[in-house]
Give the backbone structure.
Amino acid sequence: MTIALTGCGGSSGGGGGTATVPAGKPVAVSAKDYSFTPSTIHVSAGRIRFDLTNDGAQAHDLHVDKDGQDLGGTSVFGPGSTQSATVKLAPGTYDFVCTVGNHEALGMKGKLVVQ
């Protein structure tokens, strides 16, 4: 898989960075307590597969959200594992969040730009 990581932005949880993922390639995301890396992702519209690796010490998930509507994502799973989920998305700007407890409020969220 080829992704380009740039920048070093981030939240207090230590996440950050930007990834541009080529069409048809899976989007690799790392979940830590309480951040995602990368925190900004650019992808092409269509069926997008997220491969979430839980590199934290707690359970996490990744869900895509648009205007408060959950569009799908992984199930909640524990540390040291990877899960995948595929979501079909039209062009636009979306959020991706961890829906576990108050993780989103603690900074576990990112921006997804679909072109």
